Structures are given as structure tokens and as C-alpha cells.
Amino acid sequence: MPGIDECLLEAMRLPGARGASLVDWTSGLALGTVGESPGGDHEAAATEAAEFARLAAEQRAFAPDDDPGGDPAAGADPPVEDLIVSNRDSYHVLRFVGPSFDGSVVLHLWLARTEGNLALARIRLGEMARRLVLA
Amino acid sequence: MTAVRTPPPPRLPVRSRSEGRGRGGLSPMLTRLAAERATGVLVRERGTLHLADGLVVHAESPSAPGLDVLLTAHGLLGADDWGAALAATGDPARAGRRLVDAGRITPGALELCQLSALYDAAYFCLAPSSTPGRFRYGAPADPDGTADPAATPPSGAARPAAPATLMFRPLPVAALERETVRRRDLLHRIWPDPRPDEAPLTVSARTAPPALTRRQRTVLDRVDGVRTATDIARELGRLAFHTLVDVRRLAAAGVLDPGRATAPPPAHPYEDVVPAPPPRAELLSSDPHVTLLKRLRDALEAL
Fold first, then answer.
1. Where are the domains of chain B?
2. Pairing between strand A82-86 and B171-172?
3. Which residues from B are below 8 Å from A101, CB to CB?
4. Domain count of chain A?
5. Cβ–Cβ of B12/A51 closer than 8 Å?
6. Region entry Disordered: which residue ranges (chain B) (predicted)?
7. CA B42 to CA B28: how far, in whole Å?
8. pLDDT by residue (tens digit) across B212-268?
């Protein structure tokens, strides 16, 4: 069972991984970072990832059909599982770390596009996010 | 159809690396303690910071929920399990470690909660205070974290500082101060009036509530004219700062009363159900332009 740093180091073992971080998307605080940071500044990258994650988590349009948006007691928080951004040279995968901890933490993996395998990264990141908090 | 939306929150501020250095930080005493690598407990008006070798290893504040609330509120851990671990170890940090060793929670869950709780409590500890802080020097009683706390001889002193080894990542004072300044900045950008942070919250009278996020709705459901943001955070098992973000966003959207008409605490214990103050005439105006101008005025006055 991994701690924060072990979880990030495990993410860095994925092919093409350039950097990984765990970000609180309400405050924009990086709770842990490993490897390079997109843009060269871990703290700035964390706040930008947090902005993106918050927007996606709060928009009704991105929630599943059966999401009881009006009923705060039911449904998963946040309703989104992960976010994917691609550009000419890299992929970013942001995985929400389930509701078991305040529902406000996201695992951010930055992959080089030539070596990275997006499908594999997405599956493995989901497993890592689960194992991080669930015993 | 006119859809009323809450205004989007402003962009998250980025920490400024140079900020705070020239000014000696938020607490000159804390900066000095960090420089001399002090060990002990700093008691400030709104909370305490525990230092070991000049690094912050623990923070607590009456305004922020503790490790126990964060661990038990979301189904990670039963309250009974926590109670048993606490009884066996006598201190929250050791109880957390014991639960990890027993396989009840993952190291990741404990680290997430410890780190978040520390930043959360430190935000309030480092708030501007009207009284000077006091520092009590004290060596950690149990630096390797292996001794049985029951066997620790009673030294006559107050509780020792939490040993550094119990916090998986002790934080430099400067990093904590930078983050606290950034968080203040974030709240200020959302809504510059700090009154809703501490006062009992009331829903303002308005005709059309805007679309709210699920997190905001759960906060709003608990607003009853009595509970404060801290009370709501504790009930929901959320970080106090996260709740302040939601509260300020609700205030900015005009959903929460900014708190001008906060009722004084009741004089008699039997009158402790405080009725909501009568709606202010100015907020009953159905003209959205008038309401907007009033809110704008409130915000400007608070600047």
C-alpha cells in the first residue's frame, strides 16, 4: 500500500512519464510532486491543473446521465472520473481521487506523446488513485 | 430564458516566491524560531503550531477539523476504530500511525489527511491576531516514535510537541507562510469581505437562487442562522478552508447574507434557537439591478 510519494513514483514508471503530482483542486496546492513540471514551475502547474479540474468537476454537462445533480446526498463526488488533454508533444491525464477524502484531490500525470500510452496510463492511474486511499 | 449563474470564481493565485521575505513573514517570531531550528509549541490566538528543529510538524486550530474528522467522515474509517486507536496510543498522530500499521487505512490516506489538516489549521493559526503568540520550548519526548507513550515518565510539563517522525513530511515555515498568504489572496479575490468566515451564516432573501455546485448546495443546506463555516466544515468532514471558499463564493453570488445583521449570542440558554433576522428591505427589491448595486456597494465598502 503506497503513500503519496510512492504513488507518484509508481506513476513515473509508466512509459513516457515526465512528471506527476497530487493536487488539491479547491486550493490549488500541490500535495506532492515528482519529476519535471509542465511549464517549469510545480506550483504554477498545480494551480493551473486545479483550475481545469474544478471546472470539469462543477459543470453539469460533464456529469453522467443518472447523476442526481440536485441531490447532494446521492451520487459520486465529483461526478467526473478523469480528464485528458493532448497537445503536439504530450498528454496530460488528471484522475480524481474518489470521494473517500473530501473529493477535492486529483492525480496529474504528464506524458511524452511519442513514448506514452494513453490507454494504459488512464487505466493504471485509476488503479493508483484507488489504492492511494482505499485499504 | 435567462439562466442565472453564480459568477465563476477568479483564477487561483500562484504563490509568489519573493513575497514575505522582505517583510519577515506573517509572524516574525515564527521566522526567528525557524532560523534557530527551535523545537516546541507556538500558541497563537487562533491555534497552535508544533515545531521540531524549526520545521512545522503539526498544527491545530478550533476553526479547522482535526485528523479524526477527516478520516472518519467519508467512510475511510469507522469512528469506533478511531476511538480505539486513540485510546491505545493517547495521541492523534500515533493513532493514525497505528491504524496504518494495522492495515485499517492506507499510508496515502493518512498522509493526505495529515498534510491537508496541517495546511488547513495553519491557515487559521497564522491569521492576524490581536494578541502576541507565546512559544514554549520543549524537546519531543519520543523522537523515534517507538516507545510506549504510557511508559513516558510524567515530566510535569505540558504535553510535548509531536515528534517529527510522526509527520511524514515536516514543512518549512516559509512554505507554510507562502501558502497561507496565497490562500488569503484566493479568498480575497472571490469576495473581499471576510465577515462570513466566522459569523453564523444566514441565507439572504432573494427570488431566484442561481445554479449551485453540489458542494455549494451541501454547504447551503446547513446554513441556518446559527452554524458558522467551521461548524459546517466539521459536519461535512471537509477542510475548513475549502468550506470558506464555498462560503465566499455563495456570498459573492448573493446567496448568503454578508453578515451585517449578525445577531449577538443569546443571553439566556433557553433562547438558543436564534430566529433568522427579518429580511432586509433592500434585499427584497425585485429589481435585479438594485440588488446588484447593493451587493457592489457592500463589496466596495469591504475593500
1. 28-183, 191-265+275-302
2. unpaired
3. 70, 74, 76, 109, 112-113, 116
4. 1
5. yes
6. 1-27, 136-162
7. 12
8. 888 888 899 999 989 999 999 999 999 999 999 999 999 998 888 876 544 444 443
